[in-house]
Amino acid sequence: MASILVVNGPNLDRLGQREPSHYGHSTLAEIESRLRQLAEDLGHQLDSFQSNAEHALIERIHRAADAQIDGLILNPAAFTHSSIALRDAVLASALPMVEVHLSNPFARESFRQVSYFSDIAIGSISGLGALGYECALRALDQRFRSS
C-alpha cells in the first residue's frame, strides 16, 4: 500500500462556483471523495490538502517528505506560473509528482502556458477536468506496481 498526498493550490476551494466553464461543476470535496474511493479500491491511502497560502503548501509538502509519503499529486493552480518556492519544495521532497490542471492552460491566456512544475513532474495532465486527478492517481499506482 502506498501513501499519496494530493495538494491543491489557491482558489481551488472555490470549485463548483468559480468559472465552471473552465473548471467544471464539481466541488473540491466531491473530487477528493471520488479520488479517496479510487485510492482505496487500488489499495492505497490518500490524504489531501488545499490552501490559498503559498507557505502552507510548502510546509505541507515538507511534512509529506519527512513522513516518507510515496507520491504527490499537485495542482498548484495559479502558483503554476509564479512559484519558484513551491517548485523548490517539490524538488527538495524528492517525491514522484504528477501535475494536474482542471483546465487546459494551453487553450487560455499566454501567461498560463508557463509551468514551473511540468519539467519536474513524472507526468502532467491538463484539460480533463476532475478526471485528471483520477488519471494522476492511476499513473502513480502503475509506477508503484512496476517498481
TrEMBL record:
Pathway(s) annotated for this protein in UniProt: Metabolic intermediate biosynthesis; chorismate biosynthesis; chorismate from D-erythrose 4-phosphate and phosphoenolpyruvate: step 3/7
Q: Which PROSITE patterns match?
A: DEHYDROQUINASE_II
Assembly behavior: Homododecamer.
Q: What is its EC number?
A: 4.2.1.10
Mind listing the UniProt keywords for this protein, alphabetically?
A: Amino-acid biosynthesis, Aromatic amino acid biosynthesis, Lyase
Annotated GO biological processes are:
amino acid biosynthetic process; aromatic amino acid family biosynthetic process; chorismate biosynthetic process; quinate catabolic process
Q: Which Pfam families match?
A: DHquinase_II
Stated name of the protein: 3-dehydroquinate dehydratase
Highest classification ranks of the organism: Bacteria, Pseudomonadati, Pseudomonadota, Gammaproteobacteria, Natronospirales
Molecular function (GO) terms listed? Answer: 3-dehydroquinate dehydratase activity
Top enzyme class: lyase
Site (Transition state stabilizer) location in chain: 18
